Amino acid sequence: xxxxxxxPLPLGVTVMKEQVNFSVAVPEGKECALLLYRAGExxxxxxxxxxxxVGNIRVLAFTGMQYSEYExxxxxxxxxxxxxxTRALAGRQEWLGEGEAAKHEVRSRICGQEYEWxxxxxxxxxxxxxxxxxxxxxxxxxxxxxxxKHRGTFQGVMEKIPYMQELGINQIQCMPVYExxxxxxxxxxxxxxxxxxxxxKSAYSSGGDGVKGLKDMVKACHKAGIExxxxxxxxxxxxRLLAEECLRFYVMEYHIDGFIxxxxxxxxxxxxxxxxxxxxxxxxxxxGFQNVARxxxxxxxxxxxxxxxxxxxxxxxxGIFNYITTHTGFTLHDLVSYDGKHNEANGENNQDxxxxxxxxxxxxxxxxxxxxxxxxxxxxVRNAFFMVLLSQGxxxxxxxxxxxxxxNGNNNVYCQDNPVGWVNWKTSRAGRELTKFVRELIxxxxxxxxxxxxxxxxxxxxxxxxxxxxxxxxxxxxxxxTEVSSRQIGVYYSAASVEGGEDCFAAYNMxxxxxxxxxxxxxxxxxxxxxxxxxxxxxxEPRLLEDQRKVxxxxxxxxxxxxx
Length: 564
Fold this sequence. Notes:
By secondary structure, this protein is α+β, with helices and mostly antiparallel strands. The protein contains eleven helices and 27 strands. Strands 4, 5, 8, 9, 10 and 11 form a six-stranded antiparallel sheet that branches. A six-stranded parallel sheet has the order 18-17-16-13-12-19.
C-alpha cells in the first residue's frame, strides 16, 4: 500500500473506492502517529507520523490498502488512544467486568459499508401511535429464565420479537448500545459516561460483531413493525459537532428511528433542525408525568389539576413520553412494595439512587404474604398501567413491569450486572394475568382513537357538536372535583373530535374511600357500557350500565366506559 495526503473531513476513518482516509483532532503542540496492527494482533506492525492539515486535525491516507487485514490506534505524545470516531472495536467481543485494559488490548477496526438491508428504512411511526418499551439489551435476556439461545445480546432481543408483538408494543427504547468501558471501580452495567459512541458494543452481539448485530436487530424489528430508539447520554463536555455527526451516522448507517438525549449536554432543538434528522424522533426523559402519576396513585392530596394536565398533554412537540417507571428508580413491582430504597449491594452505603421515589409499600416493606397487602399491590399496579396507557402522550413501559419484575428494592442498578439488574422472566400465575391485562389494555388504547389523538386535545369544542374534545367530571357532571382533598377525577373523551371511534369515559378514584361519579349525557341514543376496570380487567364484551346518570366506584379503582 502507498501513503498519500489525507483529507480533514470527515473525522475518523473513511473507506473510499481506492483509498482509506484517517483523520483525527489532536491538541496543538502534541505529536501524533497512526499505529497499524495486523487484525487480531496486540502489537503494532507499523507506525506512521500524521501530518497537520487544517486547524488541529491530523490526516493520513493510503491507496491499495487491504483494510480488512488491519486494525489501528493513535499514539499521542507516547500514549495509545482509540479513535473517538471509531466505527467498531476489536478486543471487546466479550463482556469483561472489572479490571484494567492492557496497552494494545483494544484496537479500532476499519469497517466497510457492506450490508444487505433488503430495502429496510426507518419506520416513522407517528408519535400518537407509538407504545414504547424501555429495555437494556444485556439485561433484557441475560437471565436464564429468558429462555433464549443468545442471552444478553442483540440476537436475544430479536428472539423476543414475537413476544413484544403479542404484547402490542411498537417501539423499543434501548439503553446505551455503543462501546463503553464496563470495567472500573464498579461494573458500569448501564453504559453512561465517556465512550466510543459511533461503535456498537461487540459484547452485545453473539458473534462478537456489534456492527452486524445492531443492524440485524434493527432490520428484524422493522420487519415486525417495531421502531428502534437509542438512548445517547453523551458525557458532559461532548462537542455538539461530535454528537450531531454521531446521530446522523446512526440514522444513515443503522436506520435508527430515534434518540433519547440529555438536553443539558446536547441542544435538542439544534438536532431537530438538522436536515438529516428531520424525520427522526428526538426525545428526552422528563419526570413530570412520572412524579404526578406516582403521587396520585398513592393517594397524595392536591394532585388532580396536575393529573388533568399530564393525562392530556401530547408528546411530539417537546419530544417527551409518559412513563411511571424507568431504569432510574424502582420497577413498578417495587414502587408498590417499598417505601425506601435498598441499594446496599451497590457498595455506597445506600447513599446512591433517587431519594424521593413517591412510592408506597401498601402496608409492608418488601416481600409479603399478607393477602391484604398483595391484593392492594396488584390493584395499584393495574391502576398505574391504566394511567400510563390511557394518557394521551406517548406511553412507555419498563421491560418486565408487565409481569412483575423486581430489583429487590434497588432503585439504582447501574452496577448490578447480575440477576438483580437483569429481567427475571419467571412469572407466577399473577404475573401471567398481569401480562394478559397489559396486552389487552394496549389493544384497548389502539382501538379507541380518542385515547391517542394526532393533535393534543385542548378542552374545547372543535367540531361545533356542543361537546369539548376532552372534559372533566366529578360527583357532578361537567364539574371536576379539584379541591386539595380530592383524589378522584372523571375524564370524558368525545368521539366527535377524531375520525371514527367511540366516546370514552375514564374514572380514576385513587382515594381509600368509595366515590360516586356523575356520567355526562351521550348524544342521540348512545348509552354507556363498562369496558374495563381495575377489578375485572378488560372485558371481552362491554356491559351495559344499569344507571346511565351515575356510577359508584370503589376505593383505589379505575373504570373505563364507552358509549355506543
